[in-house]
Structures are given as structure tokens and as C-alpha cells.
Write a structure and sequence with these properties.
Its EC number is 2.3.2.27. This is RING-type E3 ubiquitin transferase. The chain contains 6 helices and 14 strands. The protein has 291 residues and is of the alpha+beta class. It has one domain. The protein has a 5-stranded mixed β-barrel with strand order 2-7-8-13-12. Strands 3, 4, 6, 9 and 11 form a 5-stranded antiparallel beta sheet that branches. A hairpin with a 5-residue loop joins strand 7 and strand 8.
Length: 291
């Protein structure tokens, strides 16, 4: 087995490299989730009430770089209406058509079952809205479509069977079967209680604003409360940390097993050149006169 300059064979290098690559990716995700979790832990939790303006007026720049507010969604002007339920109104509306896929192999299904849903059509619209506090104080929400964590209420879901035709032939080459199309309609309804995490500012005219942080921190609009949001990111941080350690150990274990297997094969096989040299005396030489 060919050895590189560091003493690793090709198989050993592949095992070590794959383990380190996956572990490195998991570590990157761990650091990313941990950064967000730490920012959520350190964010200022502010009530939307009459004291909010007074707090921002005495804050440098009349802003809080990363703050948490919770309020009830209320449109500024005319709200959006559901296409399937005309009596339901909201401020963010999403219509999506996806194509769920089924892996013909058990490995594909295990790895990609929950993620392999190519989007065939997607339309997201929004109207200006505020988060209203208990005493009527309102915070204007900016750029809601840039926010993370906005899992809206599902209003409509329908599966449509698709005609396969010659696409059946492609199943055997791709290992993936498309069995239907899924139409969904989601909406952030008026009256929903939402947690917003971002940059909180006070304009000279007295308008309160929530917008994406200028320092690149994660911007959130979530139907979950603040404590639930923190717990979700804390759990994700721990999970990615475990994955990083597991794949690093798996790479080391694969390297150790490969090295041990190669050593055992070498030990059992022996050195063919030396064996040949030692057996020269046992070779029978037939005299030419006997032939």
C-alpha cells in the first residue's frame, strides 16, 4: 500500500480527511449556533409599554443594538386576505408548491427524507405591521421577510398526484421517486403574539422601530416566546458540539482500524522476497542426463 510523505496510505488519508472534514463542518455549525445562543442570552428583554420611549431616549443613539420585545400583530393599513379562507387576514402570506421525494434506497430516505422537497413555486408577500403592547404602545416591524424563525400558521394543505410518464425511467438512475406535489398556504395572522429580536430604535418623531441588527446578529420574528427560543438554540448548540466530537472520534477510529488491518495483513503474509531466499536450498535440481 503506497505511503505518503507523512506515512499515511491513501485509505488512511481518506478516512482521516473525511472524519476531519465532517467534524470541522459540525464545529463550524456549533460555533455559529453558540454565537446566536450567547447573543440571545445577553439580549435586553424590553416590555412594549409607555416606559419604552423613556428608556430609549436616555440610551446612546436612542437605540438598543440587540433587544427582545413581545407584542400582538396589528396591520398598518389594509391587511392581506387568505386565498382559501376569505375571513382570515394577516400581515405575511406565503403560498408554496413543493415536490416531496421518496428515496428508493433506505440510506437516501434516512438522510434526506425531511429535507428533499424541491420548491416549484413560492410567493411571499407582506404589508407593514406593528407589535402592539398591552397599553397600546406599538413597535413598527421592518424587513419581516429577512427574519429567522417565522413559522407561520398553516391555513391550507393539499397533495396532488402527478402523472409520471417517462419520468419512471429516471427513478432508476437518480434513486429518487417523486410521488406528489404539495400545495400549502401559510399566514402570520392579525392578533398573533410574536416575539421579535433585533435592533430597537426611536425615531425623532417618536416612532419605535424593530429592524435587523446593523452588526450582523441574527434577526428573529417567532411565534414562540423568548424562553422557548433560547432553549431551542441552546439545544442546537449542544447537538452540534456532540456531532463534532462524534465524527472526530469516528475518523480516528476508522484510521486506527485501517492501520490495524493493514498491519495484520502484512504480519500474516510475511515478506515474499525473504521467503524465496530462504527456500533456495530446498529447490530440487534435475540432472540434464535424466531427461
Amino acid at each position: 500500500m503506497a505511503k505518503f510523505c507523512l506515512g499515511f496510505s491513501l485509505t488512511e488519508a481518506l478516512c482521516l480527511g473525511a472524519g476531519l472534514a465532517v467534524s470541522g463542518l459540525c464545529y463550524y455549525m456549533y460555533r455559529k449556533k453558540k454565537k446566536t445562543a450567547d447573543e440571545l442570552d445577553n439580549a435586553s428583554h424590553i416590555n412594549i409599554d409607555g416606559n419604552l420611549k423613556d428608556t430609549l431616549e436616555v440610551t446612546p443613539g436612542a437605540r438598543l443594538q440587540y433587544a427582545v420585545v413581545e407584542g400582538v400583530v396589528e396591520p398598518v393599513g389594509e391587511p392581506l386576505r387568505s386565498q382559501c379562507h376569505e375571513d382570515i387576514v394577516g400581515v405575511v402570506h406565503k403560498v408554496e408548491v413543493t415536490e416531496p421525494r421518496l428515496g428508493l434506497s433506505s440510506l437516501y430516505s434516512a438522510l434526506f427524507k425531511s429535507h428533499d422537497k424541491p420548491v416549484l413555486h413560492k410567493q411571499v408577500t407582506s404589508v407593514p405591521f406593528v407589535l402592539r403592547g398591552s397599553d397600546g404602545t406599538a413597535v413598527q416591524v421592518h424587513c419581516p421577510l429577512k427574519a429567522s424563525g417565522l413559522n407561520m400558521e398553516m391555513l391550507y394543505k393539499r397533495f396532488l398526484q402527478v402523472s409520471h410518464g417517462f419520468s419512471v425511467l429516471g427513478w432508476y438512475f437518480s434513486g429518487v421517486k417523486s410521488y406528489s406535489r404539495l400545495e400549502t398556504e401559510e399566514m402570520l395572522r392579525v392578533g398573533t403574539r410574536v416575539t421579535g429580536v433585533g435592533q430597537l430604535t426611536l425615531d425623532p418623531d417618536g416612532t419605535l422601530n424593530l429592524r435587523p441588527p446593523s452588526d450582523g446578529s441574527k434577526y428573529f420574528l417567532s411565534m414562540a416566546d423568548y424562553d422557548t427560543l433560547r432553549k431551542q438554540y441552546s439545544a442546537a448548540t449542544k447537538a452540534w458540539k456532540r456531532f463534532a466530537v462524534i465524527f472526530a472520534l469516528a475518523g480516528a477510529a476508522a484510521l486506527y482500524y485501517t492501520e490495524s488491518f493493514a498491519d495484520s495483513v502484512t504480519t500474516k503474509g510475511g515478506n515474499p522476497v525473504e521467503d524465496g531466499e530462504n527456500n533456495q536450498e530446498n529447490i530440487c535440481h534435475l540432472p540434464l542426463s535424466a531427461m
